[in-house]
UniProtKB/TrEMBL annotation:
PANTHER family cross-referenced by the UniProt entry: PROTEIN MIS12 HOMOLOG
Protein name: Mis12-domain-containing protein
Keywords of this entry: Cell cycle, Cell division, Centromere, Chromosome, Coiled coil, Kinetochore, Mitosis
GO biological process, one term: cell division
Principal subcellular localisation of the protein: nucleus
InterPro entries found in the cross-reference section: Centromere_Mis12 (IPR008685)
Native species: Marasmius oreades
A UniProt-annotated Pfam family: Mis12
Chain segments annotated as transmembrane: none
Family: Belongs to the mis12 family.
A GO cellular-component term linked to this record: MIS12/MIND type complex
Entry's localization field: Chromosome, Centromere, Kinetochore
Length: 292
């Protein structure tokens, strides 16, 4: 009679959560421990029995007791091993055996497709590895974006604080101030293009009377410059008639040293524009104070 095919032991172990062989080994070990305890108890009983029988005698032989205990232990172990060998074989063939024709599907194996080829499984594993790498990259990107967001929030708070400090300035004032750098640059370029003054010219100019405190007459405006030149020419001519031509020549030389008419006019126009811009800013400041 052929033995019926059964389910592989690994499936039974997976279903039970433990190996059936380990359970049977524990049962056999318990039986062997009981045999050992019985032999030890019998040995103690025989020792007491011999001591009572040989009371008053000095010499008695324990060899027969030891031989009897060894024979008794061997007999018990033989029958125990024989019985539990049959018990183990019977359990493995009947209790822990499932016929192969009986369909068994574990809960975690439900809806599994066992017809997939090994090549397809490798492709799926590669796909899983690729998806895991994507998830890892997304987590790192999320961490970087979180850090960047925190930095952006800090910068935004700083910018808002700076805006609060600047928001008190009037917009009209800002427009006027925005035009000042261009006017200053134009004036600077015009002044740079003027020819340098020699020491003699500077000494001569410092001897002329001033029209306003801190300003020379020729520095006030174009008209002031012309009046200054005509006045100086007339006075020098009246004072020294023989040398009038020399005085006129000297004045013309000084004028050329200061600059040409176009250059001076350009410098004066830029200065006037700058003054107008400053006046507008002062008026807007006064107007804002009156509104407050």
């Amino acid at each position: 009679m052929s033995r019926p095919s059964t389910v592989p032991p690994l499936l039974i172990t997976e279903a039970l959560g433990f190996s059936p062989q380990l359970l049977l080994d524990d049962i056999i070990n318990i039986a062997n421990a009981a045999v050992t305890d019985g032999v030890n108890g019998l040995e103690g009983f025989l020792q007491q029995w011999v001591e009572k029988r040989s009371a008053g005698k000095q010499n008695y032989n324990n060899q027969e007791i030891e031989q009897g205990l060894v024979a008794f232990q061997t007999l018990l172990e033989h029958h125990t091993d024989l019985a539990f060998d049959f018990f183990e074989a019977w359990c493995l063939r009947n209790i822990f055996a499932i016929p192969s024709e009986l369909p068994i599907v574990l809960p975690h194996q439900e809806n599994l497709d066992l017809t997939i080829k090994p090549g397809k499984e490798e492709e799926l594993m590669e796909e899983v590895a690729r998806l895991r790498a994507q998830v890892d990259n997304q987590q790192r990107l999320h961490l970087l974006l979180s850090r960047a967001l925190r930095v952006a929030k800090k910068k935004r708070l700083q910018a808002e604080k700076r805006l609060d400090k600047v928001s008190t300035v009037d917009s009209q004032r800002l427009d006027i101030l925005g035009k000042l750098p261009q006017q200053l640059m134009a004036m600077n370029n015009a002044v740079i293009n003027l020819p340098p003054l020699d020491p003699a010219t500077i000494a001569a100019l410092t001897q002329f009377p001033l029209n306003e405190p801190g300003k020379r007459e020729w520095e006030t405006s174009k008209t002031g410059y012309l009046n200054w030149a005509v006045t100086q020419l007339t006075e020098r001519t009246r004072e020294d008639q023989p040398g009038s031509s020399a005085v006129v020549h000297s004045i013309m030389h000084n004028v050329e040293e200061i600059g040409k008419a176009d250059q001076l006019r350009q410098a004066f126009e830029v200065t006037e524009h700058l003054a107008i811009g400053l006046q507008d800013m002062d008026r807007s400041t006064e107007h804002s104070k009156m509104e407050e």
